[in-house]
Backbone:
């Protein structure tokens, strides 16, 4: 790396500072001194590990002006983060990298950024859509419309995948997409006037569902005040005709995945339960609170919503206002007053249920349960609120309209049937609490599912195939654009079952993402008639196999442990240790095994999971007796809801362990993990049959603060989100396409150079447009010297012009090994430049794959040509350092059998010769005439720079002393070998010395010995 070049130097694992290379350290050639840009501080860093090249832009241009990442010369992690930071500083929160839109959450409103009218009015003037969430939506809309007009097109439907960690802006991004598509299609429908087709859905109608889903499915977490605790797949159906350019949105549907039910009964410190509980307490009027038995009670008094000791949102959103918005949305979507009343009753009952506490009948109330259950547990007296436990239980019974005498046994006993006889077993104190919590979790999950069902039924019905897995894929399905808002990769101090499922989903999506990119790139090659070369990438299919495969996958082992008698988390962990110990994506150290923990090597890094709680959460089966009691409610409207719960296909109420089925003599179950695996597989089957668009949302800091960009935070997300890996893959192919005419227009100065009499810009344009020739015609356009345009640019020493060839639009089409009529490539020409930018031009060529050891027709490498020109100052040394850093071989010989070191000595280039010797050049290497550098008088001063043992010179090949050049008098004369320089010399030139206790070489002052 040359001196004074701009770089990014690593400060930590994730952070890179701007700076310039000041000098290379003499004591360690692998380290350089970098002066940081934010002051006079200098740091010593390892060049290979800690330094990355900065991007050089045209005069007056900044990174904030570059909308496409693929336009950058260098796209390593440091450059990526620096690019995002500079754009973020000027409120440019979107950029594009190949097929992926990167969206950085600004945590503030940016004027005009989401102005639909302005976006539509500016659109006709654009040659290409700018990086924006609206552009992704518009692109999907256009693709759907275009593909409907193409007979036989298989992938007509569109999917937009939105991913990112909690707080990155996934939910808001999804809203922007939905609103844009609704309003765009409505505008198109309005323009038609008298169409008899169905009315298009407006944006306000479509967005009415969001407050409800957010209220019941979102919560405040440590990372995000409005974190979605479920995944959702929203499908927007359109109506159109193959001969009609306009499409109108006529229906929607929502599917949800993996609701975080455990949050209903437990929250981590600093987190809240789902928003709806706090909004109900803050927004309900006095009459409603009285009806729900919530008067004079606060959130702090309910066990289920005070576990995290966090009661307010920190994003400026008021719970009371949100409650009114939710009620208004329910009315818009057709919820009746009776249905709303039933929903609020269930929520209030859950709050009171959490305060129903028990004590063991054999112990005092204040003592711990000893685990025995000789007698049923009794109700405690005191509760977390000002009410007694009995009062809370009374309210639960009243709200559910059930018999309290039936509810208590259902919470404290379990029915067991053996041989046709039924027994009741008393539950321990801990088991009573578990039964209560399981009931609460299941009720809330059923309620959430009911709400989703109501939201879907409020949308105009679209005729779909009966099988949900084939609805979108089927050819007769309605045209649709889908949006998948899925959880981001998670890693906490303690990672449990929820994180395992979430990270498995991300692992699955990453696999689909990479495969989609590779397939798209391969198809583009085929369409352009370009040879497709396989791209190297890290395949995570083995990690997925370890989780999914039967019968030894993690989900299968978990299901197996859940159905065996007295199955436990410890037993599950031991099965993994035994069956997966040799798997490359699984590990468990002795410390891990002592804690019943294990590690999975995900694509985003290793994650350590605690097996504790896996079995319980995988089963999550409520006591059937509890729901039998609820089914006896005297409230007709509640009974309808409970009947819906019973009929739900997603959860089967069972009294014991998960239902078993025998297939091929292998017991299997329907645990939550396996259900999620099947859901995800069906979802991805749908996605894979559509054209996919990707949005990666980035959270710039953990404080949700505007105008703050945490480089370490962003770097980790780029790794976890697979963005860096995707960019790396696309860099190996053709990330951006360029029209022939645009290419010629941009580079016509090169083609029309004075040396290019045969190929002018107009000639080339005619060939490309009329004959449809490939872009490589441009590289092969020969002048009278056989130069390509890249050769001409290099010969001119114009760094800015050369750098144009290495933009991603052009780079894949360049043949860096194309040689002129003397066999010289562009890198050979660069080593002969005298201009001050020579080393920068050379560095650019090498960084993008030029071969530092490519030989011309005279078998000369670039290092040979560099050694033949004596330049002023350190110019030649800088060029040589650049070549040697890129693995140039100083031992290569040309057609005269001469190495670069021979030419340096011949040209009196001592500094350059020393540099070559430090990199392993051999002074004893003979040329075609047998001349060795070590015999040259000019080489005497170089002996102290020897870094490697010289090659051995056989005595029989030497007839004269290589120091004094006097011939040896006899063939059998005794000859001395120097251990350092390797020369063969006479006794006079290797005198004996008592202080040396032997002979020594007079020139290099080193031991010598007789042959």
Residues:
């Amino acid at each position: 790396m040359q001196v004074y070049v701009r770089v990014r130097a690593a400060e930590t694992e994730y952070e890179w500072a701007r700076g310039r290379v000041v000098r290379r350290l003499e004591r360690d050639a692998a380290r350089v001194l970098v002066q940081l840009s934010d002051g006079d501080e200098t740091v010593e860093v390892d060049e290979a590990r800690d330094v990355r090249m900065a991007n050089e832009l045209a005069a007056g241009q900044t990174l904030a002006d570059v909308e496409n990442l693929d336009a950058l010369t260098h796209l390593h992690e440091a450059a990526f983060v620096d690019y995002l930071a500079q754009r973020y500083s000027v409120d440019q929160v979107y950029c594009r990298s190949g097929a992926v839109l990167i969206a950085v959450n600004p945590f503030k409103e940016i004027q005009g950024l989401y102005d639909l009218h302005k976006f539509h009015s500016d659109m006709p003037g654009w040659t290409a859509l700018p990086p924006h969430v609206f552009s992704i939506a518009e692109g999907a809309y256009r693709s759907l419309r275009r593909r409907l007009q193409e007979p036989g097109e298989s992938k007509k439907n569109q999917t937009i995948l939105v991913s990112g960690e909690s707080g990155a802006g996934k939910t808001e991004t999804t809203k922007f997409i939905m609103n844009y598509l609704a309003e765009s299609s409505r505008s198109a429908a309005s323009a038609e006037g008298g169409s008899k087709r169905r009315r298009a859905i407006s944006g306000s109608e479509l967005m009415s569902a969001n407050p409800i889903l957010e209220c019941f499915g979102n919560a405040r977490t440590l990372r995000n005040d409005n974190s979605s605790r479920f995944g959702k797949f929203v499908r927007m159906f359109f109506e159109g005709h193959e001969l009609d350019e306009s499409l109108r949105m006529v229906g929607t549907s929502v599917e949800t995945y993996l609701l975080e039910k455990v949050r209903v009964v437990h929250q981590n410190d600093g987190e809240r339960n789902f928003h709806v509980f706090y909004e109900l307490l803050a927004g309900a009027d006095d009459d409603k609170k009285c009806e729900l038995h919530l008067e004079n009670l606060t959130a702090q008094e309910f066990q289920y919503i005070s576990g995290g000791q966090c009661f307010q949102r920190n994003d400026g959103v008021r719970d009371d206002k949100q409650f009114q918005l939710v009620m208004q949305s329910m009315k818009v979507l057709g919820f009746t007053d009776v249905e709303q009343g039933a929903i609020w009753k269930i929520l209030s009952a859950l709050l009171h249920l959490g305060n129903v506490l028990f004590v063991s009948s054999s112990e005092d109330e204040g003592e711990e349960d000893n685990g025995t259950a000789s007698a049923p547990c009794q109700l405690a007296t005191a509760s977390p609120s000002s009410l007694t436990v009995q009062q809370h239980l009374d309210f639960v019974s009243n709200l559910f309209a059930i018999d309290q005498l039936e509810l208590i046994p259902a919470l404290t006993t379990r029915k067991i049937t053996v041989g046709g006889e039924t027994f009741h077993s008393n539950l321990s104190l801990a088991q009573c609490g578990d039964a209560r919590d399981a009931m609460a979790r299941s009720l809330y999950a059923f309620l959430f599912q009911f709400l989703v069902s109501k939201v879907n039924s409020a949308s105009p019905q679209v005729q779909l195939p009966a099988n949900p897995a084939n609805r979108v894929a089927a050819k007769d399905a309605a045209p649709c654009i889908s949006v998948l808002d899925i959880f981001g990769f998670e890693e906490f101090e303690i990672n449990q079952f929820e994180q395992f499922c979430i990270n498995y989903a991300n692992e699955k999506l990453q696999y689909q993402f990479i495969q989609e990119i590779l397939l798209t790139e391969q198809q583009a090659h085929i369409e352009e008639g370009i040879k497709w070369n396989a791209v190297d990438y890290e395949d995570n299919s083995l990690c997925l196999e370890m989780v999914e495969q039967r019968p030894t996958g993690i989900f299968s082992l978990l299901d197996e442990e859940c159905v065996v008698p007295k199955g436990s988390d410890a037993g599950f962990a031991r099965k993994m240790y035994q069956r997966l110990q040799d798997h490359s994506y699984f590990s468990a150290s002795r410390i891990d095994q002592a804690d019943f923990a294990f590690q999975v090597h995900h694509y985003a890094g290793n994650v350590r999971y605690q097996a504790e709680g896996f079995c319980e959460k995988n089963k999550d089966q409520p006591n059937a007796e509890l729901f039998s009691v609820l089914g006896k409610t005297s409230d007709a409207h509640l009974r309808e809801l409970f009947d819906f719960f019973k009929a739900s296909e997603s959860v089967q109420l069972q009294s014991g362990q998960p239902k078993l089925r025998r297939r091929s003599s292998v017991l299997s179950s329907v645990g939550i993990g396996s259900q999620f695996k099947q859901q995800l597989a069906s979802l991805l089957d749908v996605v894979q049959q559509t054209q996919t668009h990707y949005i990666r949302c980035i959270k710039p800091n953990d404080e949700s603060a505007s105008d703050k960009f945490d480089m370490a935070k962003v770097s980790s997300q780029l790794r976890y989100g697979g963005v860096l890996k995707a960019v790396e893959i696309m860099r190996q192919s053709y990330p951006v396409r360029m029209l022939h005419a645009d290419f010629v227009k941009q580079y016509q100065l090169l083609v029309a150079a004075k040396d290019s009499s045969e190929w002018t810009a107009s000639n080339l344009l005619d060939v490309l447009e009329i004959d449809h020739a490939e872009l490589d015609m441009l590289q092969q356009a020969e002048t009278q010297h056989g130069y390509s345009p890249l050769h001409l640019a290099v010969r001119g020493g114009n760094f800015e012009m050369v750098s144009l060839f290495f933009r991603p639009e052009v780079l894949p089409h360049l043949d860096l090994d194309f040689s002129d009529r003397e066999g010289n490539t562009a890198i050979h020409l660069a080593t002969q430049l005298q201009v001050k930018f020579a080393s920068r031009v050379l560095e650019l060529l090498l960084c993008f794959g030029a071969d530092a050891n490519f030989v011309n027709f005279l078998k000369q490498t670039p290092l040979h040509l560099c050694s033949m020109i004596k330049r002023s100052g350190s110019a030649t040394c800088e060029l040589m350092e650049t070549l040697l850093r890129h693995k140039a071989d100083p031992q290569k010989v040309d057609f005269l059998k001469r190495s670069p070191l021979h030419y340096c000595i011949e040209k009196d280039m001592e500094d350059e010769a020393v540099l070559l010797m430090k990199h392993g050049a051999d002074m004893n290497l003979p040329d075609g005439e047998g001349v060795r550098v070590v015999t040259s008088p000019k080489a005497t001063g170089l002996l102290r720079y020897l870094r490697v043992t010289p090659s051995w010179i056989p005595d029989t090949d030497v007839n004269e002393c290589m120091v004094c050049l006097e011939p040896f008098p006899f063939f059998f004369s005794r000859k001395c070998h120097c251990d350092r320089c390797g020369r063969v010399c006479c006794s006079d030139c290797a005198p004996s010395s008592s202080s040396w206790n032997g002979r020594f070489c007079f020139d290099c002052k080193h031991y010598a010995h007789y042959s």
User: Anything to note?
Assistant: The chain has a mean pLDDT of 79. The longest strand covers residues 248-257.
